[in-house]
Specification:
CATH topology: Alpha-D-Glucose-1,6-Bisphosphate, Chain A, domain 4
Helix content: 10-25%
Radius of gyration: 16 Å
Shape: globular
Order of helices and strands: HHEEEHEEEEEEEH
Largest sheet: 10 strands, mixed
Distance between the termini: 43 Å
Low-confidence stretches: 1-22
Structural class: alpha+beta
Mean pLDDT: 83
Strand content: 35-45%
CATH architecture: 2-Layer Sandwich
């Protein structure tokens, strides 16, 4: 069984739901790998993970990459399909993503909302969580529940941004806890490094 592939499919993108926004989460540092520092925390009986890293580019450009379904295949491993379901307004959208998984694990998918909060010209937050939607496709196997995920994107200087990604998800189905925890611990590294590559590629196209 390919644990790495299973790990990638378990978690997608995200930000905090309202009852957690007021809670203080006690993050514990695990390690630093490939420029990303990974933390974990116990949140209401589940394990949440955080990744912090730096990238070259602007906050707005990174947001555009994260919310562009046509580019998801370039940085989401085992990506199968995805689309924008509804744009409620430019700051609030509903998305669908489906992820391939290796046998014998069933494929996963997720329906989630993304909200953009601009705290200042130099700082943007993206908050995501699972939702239901009448236009969402039927599940292709097992539906992931994003309990919360959050991107905090802050400009450091003219060329650099600091990115913090936090997530807590339920992958659905009968998967062992150790595998779920292993996947979530590695996902912040894979995710932030993949986004950094896409951001560099966008910068090259502009220059």
């Amino acid at each position: 069984m390919n644990f790495r592939k299973i790990g990638i499919l378990l978690f997608v993108l995200g930000a905090s739901i309202s009852f957690l926004l007021s809670e203080e989460i006690a993050w514990e540092k695990i390690r630093t790998e490939k420029g990303v520092t990974v933390y974990r925390a116990d949140v209401q009986g589940r394990v949440a993970f955080r990744g912090i890293g730096e990238m070259t580019g602007s906050p707005e450009d990174l947001v555009s990459i994260i919310e562009d379904p046509s580019g998801w295949k370039n940085w989401i491993e085992n990506f199968k399909s995805g689309k924008l379901i509804e744009e409620i307004n430019p700051e609030h959208k509903i998305f669908y993503q489906a992820i391939n998984s290796p046998f014998p694990v069933s494929d996963r998918d997720v329906v989630f909302e993304s909200r953009i909060i601009r705290d200042s010209p130099d700082k943007i937050r993206m908050e995501m969580k699972s939702v239901t939607h009448p236009k969402a496709p039927k599940t292709i196997g097992t539906r992931i529940d994003i309990i919360f995920s959050r991107y905090s994107i802050e400009k450091i200087n003219q060329n650099k941004i600091a990115v913090t990604f936090e997530t807590l998800s339920h992958p659905g189905g009968a998967l062992p806890d150790f595998l779920v925890n292993w996947a979530s611990e590695n996902y912040p590294v894979t995710l932030l490094n993949g986004l950094a590559v896409q951001l560099r590629n966008l910068n090259k196209k502009k220059n």
